[in-house]
Design a protein that fits this description.
The protein is mostly helical and 191 residues long. Helix content is 73%, strand content 0%. Helix 7 crosses helix 9.
Length: 191
Amino acid sequence: KYCTTVGDYVVIAGIPGVLAVAAAEGISLEKTSEVIGVAMHTMGLDWGDTTRIANVLAAASAKTASSIESLGESLGYGGQIAHQAGMSLEETVAIMAKFHDAGLKGSTAGTGFQNAITQLSKPSEDGAAELEKMGVTMDHTASGALDFIGIIDQVSVGLEKMPNNLARIAAANKIFGIRGGRAALAMMEAE
């Protein structure tokens, strides 16, 4: 289904990864191909990366409250923005898995992440003021990607200094937007 325009070589290159994911969680080959395809397309990868994708998804699923299918759904909503922000598959899946541990799964996790990244890329006036008040810097990883986890950690420290939970919620929503704020707060609570 994903290989109609790319030829037989790519199909053969992708088989080991598809089989590994299917075996790891006992899901159908059709659903596995869909999950691998979503991860591949949203993260700018190709069928030669299917074993890597399979290993990353299986490891995250085994170590967190996520499933391969739910991580695939999360990537469908948030993978493209992560790729555009320079994040790797490994970083992105780790973040999505943390959202799952916090109780945000599938499309909710992906949408929350997408909104948080979008707000960080161009903060609103109120969001920028909150970030400045907290002393948050927009750090990047060694690869040049936005350091989402580092920023979350900095914001978490700033929120801890606030007088009450409502003030924390309001500040997070100013920084990350309403959906992104919910996701960021959930991630902070899961740590």
